[in-house]
Amino acid sequence: GIQVEQSPPDLILQEGANSTLRCNFSDSVNNLQWFHQNPWGQLINLFYIPSGTKQNGRLSATTVATERYSLLYISSSQTTDSGVYFCAVVATTNNDMRFGAGTRLTVKP
Amino acid sequence: EAQVTQNPRYLITVTGKKLTVTCSQNMNHEYMSWYRQDPGLGLRQIYYSMNVEVTDKGDVPEGYKVSRKEKRNFPLILESPSPNQTSLYFCASRRQGFLYGYTFGSGTRLTVV
Fold this sequence. Notes:
Chain A is an all-beta fold. Helix content of chain A is 0%, strand content 61%. The mean pLDDT of chain B is 94.
């Protein structure tokens, strides 16, 4: 099945810093989403972005489907951005949503 | 408000005592799915359903059952829970077709002792 790799696995930032999270996938996808899992365990949908670029406030994402990667940018990070960020994809060959292992972000005040 | 609702949010039970985790969505989505999340293993799919009365196994279906009698509901059944089913469970739904993203429930933290 499709493989999803996220990097880096862990990231520690000072408040106000910018960061880029990466998601590589091994096959063509119909669907790609970025989620934030908050400290209470809830999965919050950030972006549905199978291709192109989207922005929502301090967050933006870009997916280059032909090169099989997606990037999540966080600017001017805040302590509330802490948590785990997951990339999840649905391959063109089936209906399963596959998750990467996540990037654990810690933003220090 | 469009949402996926799971109940209960937290559950502690004993080995062998049958339990059901409910999942309901109010968006008329055709596709629903269950995942479990474990430390170091990420989120793995248990079962999914393409529509009413259509279900199929995911990556880790052993020890679980599901049913899809109505479009809005997709309960997860543990007939005889064991400690290795202690996990964080998520239900998700989306509209059929690949132009739509998934919506996840708030999660159910299950502990089997």
